[in-house]
Hints:
heterodimer; A: mainly alpha; 42% helix; B: 12 strands; 21% strand
Amino acid sequence: MPVSMCVCRLYFSKQSEKCIRCYACRNACPLCYCEVCCVDESQPQWFGKSVALSDTQVFHLMRTYHTAGRCVDCGACVRACPMDIDLRFMNKKIDKDVRELFSYEAGMDPEAPLPLNTFKTDDEDEFIKG
Amino acid sequence: MKEKTIKKNELANFVAGLLSDYQVFAPAKEEESLVLKEMQAEGDIDLDIGVGPVNTKKSIKEFFFPQKERFFSYDLTKPGEMEEPVLSDKKRVIFGVRPCDVNSISVFDAIFTSDQYPDPYYIKRRERTTIVAIGCNKPETTCFCVDTGGGPFSADGSDLLLVDLGDEYLVQVLTEKGETLVNGSSGFSEPKSGVLQKRDGIVEEAQKAIKSDIKIKKVKGWLDNNFDAPFWDTVHEKCIGCGTCTYLCPTCHCFDILDETKGEKGERIRIWDSCMYPQFTLHASGGNPRKSGKERMRQRVMHKFKYFVDNNEMVACTGCGRCVKYCPVNLDIREVLKQIQVS
Ligand code: SF4
Ligand code: SF4
Ligand code: SF4
Ligand code: SF4
Ligand code: SF4
């Protein structure tokens, strides 16, 4: 594993350890629109509900992926979090990936199709054809 | 009540002396906030907490009522067998707790040590804990403990209470547990003349610094008759329904009990829950008696300032101000109470 990966994981663990699963970040987020969030589902229960580090990390990974390509980096989650958790840490990495892979920056052009919600049947990438 | 003094430079010695018999926890700075941390070795936590934030971000409640409590584990391939955790009975001292947090223990005692529903987990943790509180010479702007029956030097719930007099602490010895701590150390002296007057001056000044002026009895009188008032239609509007105010609150004690399983194995756990979540009252049928933010905010205010008073003759709020400070939308409970007060 490259060294930088270890450092990132450690940092992510350290940040996640502080989380009390209050969901202020999710509730303050303009993109979290689901009527029932996957962490609140009980049938089936997708996530452990305690503050076990693995469950907390899955929650954060899940939220990061669910806002990938849509997060406009407004910082509402960071301001809402009572535990001073650096919630933009992973979103920024995903923003960068989306910019590099799709030349897309969320929030800049309301008309532009969302890169992760769009597909073309004649896409030149092999994986899309399944 | 006995009173002693200890020089500030003797305090570290006194606390280090406890390490052989007790686990010791004390507020330590982590990034910008204070957390209660276990002292591993003499001097690894700076006990001079006079600067920076007054109180820890998380309250003392997790020491008695952790966010997750495992009741037992099971394995479906071994019917009838279950494994229960063995709770530690190692004695511990929690040092430097603020009065609003020690006062919250009365609220927890009323719930978890009642004759009707004694909670063995809570009781065991309470028994093994000695609390050394420290009064607040400089309350924060969010503090309103004087309005909820406490105060910056309220001792209720602590075993020792320290008052910072500048170069020394006045130590109020409140219980036998507190006395045991003091007797085991040579750093304590009898208060010199004038010390108690000095203390009274500091207490008075700190109390005066809290200016919120909420009349808790008046609030209760209004709540008694206004479950359906139009007030509730709007007061909740900016709330985003997170659990911040209740999870950080030293008195909120609601929980959920559930099973978490992996394959054939599972555990039954108790976790914190919050009346600010829609799921809190969601029925299996899909119905929800507290279906909007209105009912949920009303529940939080009513529980703290009416129902708990009806049942236990005390408010379920110690005025610590955490919900004021950390609410992401600045929904200030003091403002809510004041609006009620003038209604
Ligand atoms: S707001 Fe902070 S503490 Fe609360 S769930 Fe989000 S990351 Fe965790
Ligand atoms: S912390 Fe504020 S926004 Fe969150 S539930 Fe409490 S009152 Fe509502
Ligand atoms: S309701 Fe707010 S001020 Fe009162 S004890 Fe709870 S967190 Fe502190
Ligand atoms: S009902 Fe709400 S306000 Fe009352 S203890 Fe439970 S979470 Fe706290
Ligand atoms: S609310 Fe009172 S006891 Fe609590 S930190 Fe503030 S001044 Fe101290």
